[in-house]
Amino acid sequence: MDSPVKPETDEQNDSEKREWVKNPNGLPEIYGNYLHTNWSLFDTRILIGHLKPYLGDSTKFVIEEQGAINLSWAQTKNLARLLGGMVRAYESVNGEIPQLKLAPNAEQIKAAEAENESKQRPV
Known about the structure:
The protein has 123 residues and is an alpha+beta fold.
């Protein structure tokens, strides 16, 4: 049996160990399920959003901004390597992460059922 893939640690190649210290102002926890990226010659930016149903209309969604992270190109490459390692480790234990599909809402289900019924009626 294959052994699980070990995720790489950040700054793995640094010869010196660095200590993490708490920010005296606290550290914000940000949840995001929607990302938008852009970049310049010098750095990259990842805008983190939260995709939410629009209040009062279950067929419409909005993206509420949560935060953004700006990284140098070198750190962007390091982040890509770290995330790839995390996904490989997760999938080695849990199997491939499937592509998600949004279930239809109640109105779409009713419309599809009505269409199916009309197709089954004799002409």
